[in-house]
Amino acid sequence: MRAGFIGLGAMGAHMARNLAQQGWLGAVWNRTPATAQALAGELGVACAASPAELAATVDAVLICVSADADVLAMIDALLPGLRPGTLVIDLSTVGSATARAAARRVRERGADFLDAPVTGGVEGARNATLAIMVGGAADTLERARPLLAAMGSRVVHMGDTGMGQAAKAVNQVMCAGINQAVTEALAFGERLGLDMGKLIEVVSGGAAGNWFLDKRGPTMTQDVFRPGFKLALHHKDLKICEAMAEDLGTALPLSTATRQDYERLMAAGHGEEDISALYRLKRPAR
Amino acid sequence: MRAGFIGLGAMGAHMARNLAQQGWLGAVWNRTPATAQALAGELGVACAASPAELAATVDAVLICVSADADVLAMIDALLPGLRPGTLVIDLSTVGSATARAAARRVRERGADFLDAPVTGGVEGARNATLAIMVGGAADTLERARPLLAAMGSRVVHMGDTGMGQAAKAVNQVMCAGINQAVTEALAFGERLGLDMGKLIEVVSGGAAGNWFLDKRGPTMTQDVFRPGFKLALHHKDLKICEAMAEDLGTALPLSTATRQDYERLMAAGHGEEDISALYRLKRPAR
């Protein structure tokens, strides 16, 4: 099986490298051509001239872009080259409705589609320890499994098309709440005069232990907010989640509070920082 | 070194067992005598007639009770038997001011005091994998370390007397926020029709991963709220934390929201359940 990768951003470039390391990667494409050319050179794979050209030369197309419109634009751009039986795997975080629309267009060409959003941060992408939430047919997942296993350590079939994205929405809502929990607590710790390194060490080992504290606690308390996961992207995800919740007749008050905090931070020019920049609104004045 | 243990509740009984297993435990005492007699029989240690009698026969007294007033009452009750040089280690979760008051009374007798609250839940107490946050003199901690190491896997010196409790306060605030984050997200997942077992499995492996989801997610989504950590106790802790924050001129909005949710649950008779009973307020109607 020969795979092609579209979208070589912070996450995508690491995932493409891991596919290459396992011998699966044949071609890459990126909206900014220089990025694709550099990575193609590094990995010794083809740099496709277009998504359609990439699709025409591989058995599986993996997509990792930022927004719903980007996913549908990429699908439309690769369709002219897409051959029956090709796997199209969308690793982006988008709405379930977008996943279903993408799947429809792909299946009209006799190809197969999985929504397979990931979690685990840049670290997980780099170390191939992502958790991957898959929606689509079980036999399609089995064909895709060697590729997904090259990028992640936990691959779970959540159900039909769109259910991978539904699980990812839950994940993003939980991340939003944990960001509030960790930043509120650490700011309290700073005000209490605690040694923040020791505090993070001991709290990580107990019932409040979490990935975000472990990975972002040490940096946020040093005023380092390098992404990681860009705040403006999480903001976009939370808007999708809130719309999904509204359709279900429910609300996500903690996510909404986080989304509103993100808007204050974006207005102040912090949208390109890591989501842990929420700490800016909580910490004692510097 | 021969240790005595006061307070054989859900956490204390496990900690006493782990001390006994390492050969440190000489005596126990409990407010309900039958509990102490049963555990003393099980472990082959003395069942002291009073805290003072226990203190008179050991080199280290460990205390694990529920509230600030209980700690000070236990200190007063053991003082008549307390010999100079004895270690008094309070494992309870109380305010920093209570820790300082207890330390003063103990030091007046020429004995030494550590505040050493723990986190890691009943599981951590059972498996001796607690994280222990220690306040007090460094050399006192070094004397106590073999005892603490018998009960926990992470022992961190946070600073002077009271700083262990300050770290624990941060821990409790973080737990309060994580409870909101996990319950909001899982309730959203139920409404989306996701398989909750698979959802918890995949989300646990990524950037939203946390102890509480891992340990309490599978039970709360089955409407099982056996403690664990009693909701009414966390409520008590959060009131202490809010008072500490107010003294510092700050607020803990997410903790306050959780404390208020707990009050609704306590009014409905759920105070003796695990803190994950917060899910009752979030999940879809059954």
3D structure, described in words:
Chains A, B: This is 3-hydroxyisobutyrate dehydrogenase. 2 copies of one chain form a homodimer. Chain A has 2 domains: 3-161, Rossmann fold (3-Layer(aba) Sandwich); 166-281, N-(1-d-carboxylethyl)-l-norvaline Dehydrogenase, domain 2, CATH 1.10.1040. The radius of gyration of chain A is 20 Å and the shape is globular. In chain A, the strands form 2 sheets. The first copy, chain A, has a 6-stranded parallel beta sheet with strand order 3-2-1-4-5-6, with helices on both faces. Chain A has helices at 10-21, 33-43, 51-56, 68-78, 96-108, 121-127, 138-149, 163-191, 196-204, 211-220, 231-247, 253-267; strands at 3-6, 25-29, 46-47, 60-63, 87-90, 112-115, 118-119, 130-135, 152-159. With 286 residues, chain A is α/β, with parallel strands linked by helices. Chain A has 12 helices and 9 strands. Chains A and B meet through strand 7, strand 8, strand 9, helix 8 and helix 9 of A and strand 7, strand 8, strand 9, helix 8 and helix 9 of B.
Can you summarize this structure?
Chain A has 286 residues and is α/β, with parallel strands linked by helices. Helices cover 53% and strands 14% of the residues of chain A. Chain A has helices at residues 10-21, 33-43, 51-56, 68-78, 96-108, 121-127, 138-149, 163-191, 196-204, 211-220, 231-247, 253-267; strands at 3-6, 25-29, 46-47, 60-63, 87-90, 112-115, 118-119, 130-135, 152-159.
